[in-house]
Specification:
alpha/beta, Rossmann fold, OB fold (Dihydrolipoamide Acetyltransferase, E2P), six-stranded parallel sheet
Length: about 450
């Protein structure tokens, strides 16, 4: 059986896309390997949100091509956002690259790769000394109804949670973001298709799903009608909520422009909705939000958060923040700090602004130096981390429901899982017995960003 190695960079949507590609290869008679040196196919699913992610993908592929240079049949491919944005120029950067598949072409990756590999293996059987470059395939064209091609999962044994893509693309055109160019325009899947996929996952033991969309709460706004005052997204939440076996529902990432009262109210009558939202703010400065083309004011964002906390008491809110946007002054930065202090986010992903090709922000005057960006990055992280650590410490002595995901990445002798509030908990247990189960864990310690529970609290010897 030929082996395929898949490396994924970027967001949960990329992870979900890689899952589908892996399933297609397994159904085609391949096996998935975590050892790149044994692979007959090496694929990297790429991200273009920041330059660092692109450079990692390019460097990693170059290293793997070098290390496997004696295995001349190996097929190398890029998928995803960088493949979409750079296209054929990647062949010049890495001449031994064979496949460039854009964000609307994941369902065709297996066909392209299998065809190239079979040609190579057949040719080498005829002449073992033959040094093959192989075919060069670049497919980044738009694909009609591509949102409906992302539907097949590869459930793993005792899988606890899964991602479900409900839409593709984005129409917002934030000035710093390349995603509309790499993912295309908004297009949503029918509610019944999402329900069927989620039901399939529930039948395989999945208890938690995360609904994915570039701006998830704008789901279906151009394709489907509101009903009884409810948006298509809230209608979808209600439909998924009825599926037996699904105990938790999450979604990411929403946008303030689509965060209306019907979604806020959904948290009052849909108990499976987790008491956690990831809600990107980006900046606390109205002036910078305007320059970012984020069509809301800081006060609007704060108001939504406060309404959400009333709708679901104890709600945890995490966010995304960008520092060093072109023209950001110390006053603008202070407005972000003030908002973080006011809202007391449970955590935040803090990013230094990164220039992306063909985006309006990349051409703006007032580009900050890397040292200025790093200084603000560290100052903001200090505030974010202080608040996050304090919130986790306050959970010591409480009992939390944890969905066990399996062995901890940092210590395979322990298990890990997440609370409904998306807090990571580490505890001792038996993988076969507890993976995929909901467990009550008594929180005994906080390691800052991770919590630790006592084995006795879940009745284990």
């Amino acid at each position: 059986m030929p082996k395929v190695y898949i490396k994924t960079y970027g967001c949960q949507m990329n992870e979900r896309d890689s899952e589908q590609v892996a399933r297609m290869f397994i159904e085609g008679g391949y096996t998935i390997t975590t050892d790149e040196s044994l692979a007959d196919v090496i694929l990297i699913n790429t991200c273009s949100v920041r330059d660092q992610a692109e450079q990692k993908a390019l460097g990693n592929m170059g290293r793997m091509i070098h290390h496997t240079r004696d295995r001349k049949h190996v097929v190398y491919g890029f998928m995803g956002c960088m493949a979409q944005s750079r296209g054929k120029e990647l062949f010049k950067t890495l001449p031994k690259l064979n496949l460039i598949a854009g964000t609307q072409k994941y369902h065709k990756v297996f066909h392209y790769v299998h065809s190239i590999l079979q040609q190579r293996l057949t040719a080498r059987m005829d002449d073992p000394s033959l040094s093959l470059r192989g075919d060069h395939v670049c497919d980044i064209a738009e694909e009609p109804d591509s949102q409906n091609t992302i539907r097949d999962h590869l459930p793993k044994p005792q899988q606890a949670s899964a991602f479900v893509s409900i839409m593709q693309g984005c129409n917002m055109r934030c000035s710093f973001c390349i995603v509309p160019d790499t993912r295309g325009k908004e297009r949503s899947r029918p509610i019944q298709d999402v329900v069927n996929e989620t039901l399939h996952l529930a039948n395989h033991g999945v208890k938690e799903i995360t609904l994915l969309g570039q701006i998830v709460n704008l789901y279906g706004r151009t394709e489907f009608l509101r009903s009884h005052g409810k948006s298509p997204f809230v209608q979808l939440l209600e439909a998924v909520h009825e599926i037996p076996g699904i105990e938790r529902i999450r979604f990411t990432s929403p946008h303030p422009i689509g965060y209306r009262d019907d979604l806020i109210q959904a948290f009052t009558y849909l108990p499976k909705l987790c008491p956690h939202i990831h809600f990107p703010l980006q900046s606390g400065s109205d002036r910078i939000l305007h320059e970012m083309r984020r069509p809301y004011k800081n006060s609007t964002f704060v108001d939504i958060c406060e309404k959400m906390k009333v709708a679901r008491p104890g709600l945890a809110i995490t966010t995304d923040l960008i520092v060093g946007f072109p023209g950001e002054t110390e006053e603008d930065f202070q407005a972000t700090l003030n908002t973080v202090e006011h809202l007391q986010f449970d955590n935040a992903f803090v990013f230094r602004y990164s220039q992306r090709r063909n985006t309006p922000a990349s051409e703006m005057s007032g580009q900050l130096t890397e040292s200025e960006k790093e200084n603000r990055n560290q100052r903001l992280l200090e505030v974010v981390n202080r608040i996050a650590i304090a919130k986790n410490a306050a959970l010591i002595g409480t009992r939390q429901q944890v969905l066990c995901e399996g062995p901890s990445k940092t210590n395979a002798r322990r298990l890990t899982g997440r609370t409904p509030h998306n807090k990571i908990v580490i505890f001792e247990g038996n993988t076969q017995q507890h993976k995929g189960k909901l467990l009550d864990i008594q929180i005994e310690q906080s390691g800052g960003f991770s919590l630790f529970g006592s084995p006795a609290s879940i009745g284990m010897p």
